[in-house]
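Task card 7
Instruction: Convert sequence to structure tokens.
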Amino acid sequence: MSKVLVDTNVILRALLHDNEKQAKQADEIIKAGAWTLPEVLAEVDHVLRTFYNVERKDIARQLFTAVNLVEVERREVIFRAIKIFAETKLDFVDCILAAYHDVENAEVFTFDKDLNKVIKREEK
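Output:
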């Protein structure tokens, strides 16, 4: 069986176990081999923050856990993004952009002053 692409709900059930039936299925799918996208992790952040009112530092921990449960594209970038997320007030998507700049030397142009500050900090 090939690896299965999982969405936000699967990751949330595996992290939160707030629906035991779905959590069991999520755990089985993940154990069999699963992968996800950075965009899904951004949605995990959004749901944890807005629906579950989880604190930022706890979201960072949950995102690290998620990346250790499933494969994710650009793993090094995502790990760096989570670290930036834990250290700043940036949205997770902005942290991904800053991480691309830091890890892959991607040139990032933005009008966002806070993101620009983090990018400048990462250049040092």
